[in-house]
Amino acid sequence: MTTEGQGLHTHVLDTLGLAITAGAYPQGSVLRTDEVAQRFDVSRTVVREVVRVLESMHLVESRRRVGVTVRPTEEWNVYDPRVIRWRLAGADRPRQLRSLTVLRSAIEPVAAGLAAHHATPEQCAELTECALGMVATSRGHQLEGYLEHDIAFHRVVLNASGNEMFARLGDVVAEVLAGRTHHRVMFDDPDPAAVTLHVQVAEAVREGDAVRAEEITRQIAVGALAELDVLAP
Amino acid sequence: MTTEGQGLHTHVLDTLGLAITAGAYPQGSVLRTDEVAQRFDVSRTVVREVVRVLESMHLVESRRRVGVTVRPTEEWNVYDPRVIRWRLAGADRPRQLRSLTVLRSAIEPVAAGLAAHHATPEQCAELTECALGMVATSRGHQLEGYLEHDIAFHRVVLNASGNEMFARLGDVVAEVLAGRTHHRVMFDDPDPAAVTLHVQVAEAVREGDAVRAEEITRQIAVGALAELDVLAP
DNA sequence: CGGGCACTAAAAGTATGACGTTTATGTCTC
DNA sequence: GAGACATAAACGTCATACTTTTAGTGCCCG
């Protein structure tokens, strides 16, 4: 997860981004371009480009005669997918998972309601397929397969909502679901009630019942939040 | 709004970003680093840094031997504040305003509900103050003053929710509200009903009534959506 | 003693030229 | 016609020199 290895730039960016979001450099710390270049054994050119990207994420601020200073957490672009990945990989992963789950619980019910109106026949079919896949993998320690269908399901809902901002949250949801699965005790199968709810959402969307789709999705969200309380009290 | 004038980098970035998000370069278009450098009369260094930032926003993709290609809209990082600004300044501003308003309508009610639990006394006071300010400026063509208090109000709610992801949406909400105000006929005062609702939200939050805070905020959202339908049918 | 002004130097910003690396594309052969 | 090979185009990286901004210092004057 750290390097991604496709170029010096990416490596330095990932390493620095991970370190900063992990809190290795507290707010106000300064990095000097030359130092960083030396430390990673790359040219200043590369470091500058990295700094520019970190700057665009509001993780740091570069000022003349002072260096690259780390900005306070409240100013970070926490919706940047890379920032999310870094933070989920870091120390305050539980905190992060919680705030993202709350975000989901606000978005997804509304998205499901919209999907009931806007979903194409193809999307309805996909949705049903995903739900069936979830049912099929919900027993017998097939968590990975279940996760895959779960992610696909929520992605389709978000896309079918017809709202661009919702659709682009698909990656975030994927991260959250993956994070949750991989941090759960690997023995217990998914909650059967949740599986049923997903099937019902697929139904409601297919039938164009927005109110029901929203309501049931809200129940799923409540369940996710409750589960979070159990895992991270 | 275009230049911001603090450095070549910023100027080129803003110009290119604006052009790309405005659709001046359709998906798949290629930019050549050298060409851009020549066009803006800057060094390749600057252009490369700009490209890296655009790349980090998933607006473009840079590949060897082919150039900098514009990515399809669905892949933009639409939560990046700069992307939002650019798109709000561009042609499909109405579309953009709508999708952002839908986002608001999903987030803010939940945020208000959380705020009822988490708001500090200071935040409650601020909220009341904002609501009073809205009342005071709601009549007599003081739209600018009203806007200011409106923005402050929603910002406080989002911050008081205690959820980081919600809090960071303050800027987006500010943009949306500003955009709405500045595109409304300047003669008509704000809807008195909306003003009342804001006051009631402040009350509910102060009293810790989460359900009511959420419900009333949802009414505000409904109103905003309805208003949007009138302006952009 | 204090405040303001000029100077300095540190660090980022910019420009340029050279070279490395990947890869789309055309060509050549079988 | 298919596959191997060569080529060149564009980005990727590096090194270096120069410019610009600005924090910090210290001097001078009131």
Give an overview in words.
2 copies of one chain form a homodimer. Chain A is 68% helix and 4% strand. Chain A has 233 residues and is mostly helical. The first copy, chain A, has 2 domains: 8-75, Arc Repressor Mutant, subunit A; 92-231, Four Helix Bundle (Hemerythrin (Met), subunit A), CATH 1.20.120.530. The model of chain A has no long low-confidence stretch (mean pLDDT 93). The A-B interface holds A 9, 45, 48-49, 52-53, 56-57, 74, 76-82, 99-100, 102-103, 105-107, 109-111, 114, 163-168 and B 9, 45, 48-49, 52-53, 56-57, 74, 76-82, 99-100, 102-103, 105-107, 109-111, 114, 163-168. The structure holds a DNA duplex (30 and 30 nucleotides).
Which runs of chain A of at least 5 residues are low in confidence (pLDDT < 50)?
A: none
SSE order of chain A: HEHHEEHHHHHHHH
Compute the number of structural domains of chain A.
2
What would you call the structural class of chain A?
mainly alpha
Regarding quaternary structure, what we see is homodimer
CATH class of the largest domain in chain A: Mainly Alpha
Looking at the structure, the CATH topology of the largest domain in chain A is Four Helix Bundle (Hemerythrin (Met), subunit A)
Number of helices of chain A: 11
Shape of chain A: elongated
What's the end-to-end separation of chain A, in Å?
Answer: 28 Å
Our estimate of the beta-strand percent of chain A is under 5%
Annotation, overall tally of beta strands of chain A = 3
Instruction: Give the overall pLDDT of chain A as a whole number.
Output: 93
Q: Please give the most extensive interface between any two protein chains, plus how many residues each contributes.
A: A-B, 33 and 33 residues
Order of strands, main sheet of chain A, comes to 1-3-2
Task: Using the CA coordinates, give the radius of gyration of chain A.
Answer: 21 Å
Question: What does the largest sheet of chain A look like?
Answer: 3 strands, antiparallel
